[in-house]
């Protein structure tokens, strides 16, 4: 018997929720913003789930929606939203990123590096680190494969220099 | 240190289930979220504007019908009706565009769609600016409606020439300005500042993002 839509979605979310964690930590500075963005990403995904085509990889579809929401994300009054999210029952809870030393120095360094990139390069880097092929990155972002390759090579070069300067 | 060495460590985070917890029941009960609400509000605003444009078209249509001749007020009303029709068409286009917003689209495509939705205020301002060279249309209709006078026969020949030249000059200036007011030219400081003043910082950021994604040379 086919599983209901809600169950299928919940299972997929549990399996891929790490994507949401990585995106919100790459695009947002503080915890309230992360919670708020995570909520927007998850709800957008749920509302778009009816149109999900099973022939495509779920993680690719999820990345595309999550990146689109993160890039469009706009806060008029972060203080107000912060207070609201404290009062409301939370749909999503993100662990406090600043207290996660156990994540490892390498991952923390990567987040710091990604945080310094511009909006587009952040998206490219996130997809690249997931081992997405160049043409898939190009397709998800709507840019040419050559442009993706050029940008990745520049990002790698910058990262190399940064690590060298920090003696990692 | 090579970036590729980090891939495995990075992907291991996917299995870290403690870092994020989702209330699945709350999530699947959701019917709408902030972005959908914002888009819905925009759609209603466009519908209201569309109704206003439609009302203007009907009023101008009635005005034309009462005096269907080649008089200056009638021609002015026709000109303003054309602008109102363009405005109404723009609003209908916006409503269709908002309905088609799909977050599963490639990033560049969706950002362009959102830019088009968010730049509505800019488009309205452009429409108003486009009508500036036809400022005499407002004057002729105003005189006819308020005072009941067709101003054109009372104008001297040299004044008609001056007003016509001024309109032509304004047409050149506004056309130049309006063609420049586009995200392609966001790096030009006056374009950036004008868009910032009319619509806000968000649209400037979006324009810069779209330019960045379209650029193959950077």
TrEMBL record, chain A:
<keyword id="KW-0804">Transcription</keyword>
<dbReference type="GO" id="GO:0003677">
    <property type="term" value="F:DNA binding"/>
</dbReference>
<dbReference type="InterPro" id="IPR014284">
    <property type="entry name" value="RNA_pol_sigma-70_dom"/>
</dbReference>
<dbReference type="GO" id="GO:0006352">
    <property type="term" value="P:DNA-templated transcription initiation"/>
</dbReference>
<dbReference type="InterPro" id="IPR039425">
    <property type="entry name" value="RNA_pol_sigma-70-like"/>
</dbReference>
<keyword id="KW-0731">Sigma factor</keyword>
<dbReference type="Pfam" id="PF08281">
    <property type="entry name" value="Sigma70_r4_2"/>
</dbReference>
<dbReference type="InterPro" id="IPR036388">
    <property type="entry name" value="WH-like_DNA-bd_sf"/>
</dbReference>
<dbReference type="InterPro" id="IPR013324">
    <property type="entry name" value="RNA_pol_sigma_r3/r4-like"/>
</dbReference>
<feature type="domain" description="RNA polymerase sigma-70 region 2">
    <location>
        <begin position="14"/>
        <end position="79"/>
    </location>
</feature>
<comment type="similarity">
    <text>Belongs to the sigma-70 factor family. ECF subfamily.</text>
</comment>
<dbReference type="InterPro" id="IPR013249">
    <property type="entry name" value="RNA_pol_sigma70_r4_t2"/>
</dbReference>
<dbReference type="GO" id="GO:0016987">
    <property type="term" value="F:sigma factor activity"/>
</dbReference>
<keyword id="KW-0805">Transcription regulation</keyword>
<feature type="domain" description="RNA polymerase sigma factor 70 region 4 type 2">
    <location>
        <begin position="109"/>
        <end position="159"/>
    </location>
</feature>
<dbReference type="Pfam" id="PF04542">
    <property type="entry name" value="Sigma70_r2"/>
</dbReference>
<dbReference type="InterPro" id="IPR013325">
    <property type="entry name" value="RNA_pol_sigma_r2"/>
</dbReference>
<dbReference type="InterPro" id="IPR007627">
    <property type="entry name" value="RNA_pol_sigma70_r2"/>
</dbReference>
<protein>
    <submittedName>
        <fullName>Sigma-70 family RNA polymerase sigma factor</fullName>
    </submittedName>
</protein>
TrEMBL record, chain B:
<keyword id="KW-0472">Membrane</keyword>
<keyword id="KW-1133">Transmembrane helix</keyword>
<feature type="transmembrane region" description="Helical">
    <location>
        <begin position="44"/>
        <end position="65"/>
    </location>
</feature>
<feature type="transmembrane region" description="Helical">
    <location>
        <begin position="127"/>
        <end position="148"/>
    </location>
</feature>
<protein>
    <submittedName>
        <fullName>Uncharacterized protein</fullName>
    </submittedName>
</protein>
<feature type="transmembrane region" description="Helical">
    <location>
        <begin position="77"/>
        <end position="98"/>
    </location>
</feature>
<feature type="transmembrane region" description="Helical">
    <location>
        <begin position="160"/>
        <end position="179"/>
    </location>
</feature>
<keyword id="KW-0812">Transmembrane</keyword>
């Amino acid at each position: 018997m086919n599983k209901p839509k809600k169950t299928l979605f919940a299972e997929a979310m549990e399996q891929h929720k790490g994507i949401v964690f990585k995106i919100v930590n790459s695009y947002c500075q503080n915890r309230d913003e992360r919670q708020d963005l995570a909520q927007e990403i998850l709800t957008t995904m749920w509302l778009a789930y009816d149109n999900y085509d099973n022939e495509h990889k779920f993680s690719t579809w999820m990345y595309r929606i999550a990146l689109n929401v993160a890039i469009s994300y706009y806060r008029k009054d972060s203080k107000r939203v912060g207070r609201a999210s404290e009062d409301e029952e939370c749909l999503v809870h993100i662990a406090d990123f600043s207290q996660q030393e156990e994540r490892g120095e390498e991952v923390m360094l990567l987040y710091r590096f990604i945080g310094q990139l511009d909006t587009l390069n952040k998206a490219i880097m996130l997809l690249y680190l997931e081992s997405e092929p160049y043409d898939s990155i190009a397709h998800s972002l709507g840019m040419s494969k050559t442009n993706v390759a050029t940008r990745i090579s520049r990002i790698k070069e910058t990262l190399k220099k940064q690590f060298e300067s920090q003696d990692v | 240190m090579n970036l590729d060495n980090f891939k495995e460590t990075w992907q291991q985070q996917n299995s870290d289930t403690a870092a994020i917890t989702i209330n699945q029941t709350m999530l699947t009960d959701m019917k709408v979220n902030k972005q959908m609400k914002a888009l819905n509000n925009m759609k209603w605003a466009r519908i209201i504007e569309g109704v206003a444009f439609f009302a203007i078209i009907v009023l101008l249509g009635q005005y034309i019908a009462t005096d269907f001749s080649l008089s200056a007020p009638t021609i002015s009303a026709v000109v303003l009706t054309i602008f109102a029709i363009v405005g109404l068409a723009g609003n209908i286009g916006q409503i269709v565009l908002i309905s088609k917003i799909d977050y599963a689209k490639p990033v560049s495509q969706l950002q362009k769609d959102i830019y088009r939705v968010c730049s509505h205020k800019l488009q309205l301002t452009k429409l108003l600016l486009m009508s500036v060279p036809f400022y005499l249309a407002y004057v002729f209709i105003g005189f006819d409606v308020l005072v009941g006078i067709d101003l054109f026969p009372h104008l001297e020949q040299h004044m008609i020439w001056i007003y016509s030249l001024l309109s032509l000059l304004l047409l050149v200036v506004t056309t130049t300005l309006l063609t420049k007011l586009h995200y392609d030219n966001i790096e030009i400081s006056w374009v950036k500042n004008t868009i910032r003043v009319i619509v806000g910082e968000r649209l400037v950021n979006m324009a810069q993002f779209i330019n960045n994604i379209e650029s193959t040379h950077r």
